[in-house]
Write a structure and sequence with these properties.
single chain; 4-stranded parallel beta sheet; globular
Amino acid sequence: MENRKTRVYISGKITGTTDFMERFARAEEKLKSEGYAVLNPAHANSYMPEDTTWEEYMKISMALLQMADAIYMLNGWEDSKGAKQEYETAVNPLHLKVMYENA
C-alpha cells in the first residue's frame, strides 16, 4: 500500500456566513500542523464561477469527500444543510472517521 498522509475533509456551515473562508483556513492550518493532508472545500469552491449553484458546489464537495479518510466537523455544522449531507455520506456509505472541532 502506498505511504501517504491521512486525508481529512473539512465540513461546516458556508451558506449564510461571512467568515467561512477564515474558519475553514484556521481548521486547515490546525489539521496540517497535526500532520494531515487537508481537503478544504471552501478553498476549492472559491475557484468556481460566480453563477455556480449550490447543487454544483455540493457535487464538487462530494467528489472531494470521496477522496478523504476522515471528516472534520466545524462547530455549528448541524445548522448547515450541506454539512449534514456531507456528514451522512461520510458515515454511510463511506465509513470515514469523524472528527469534531470542539472535541
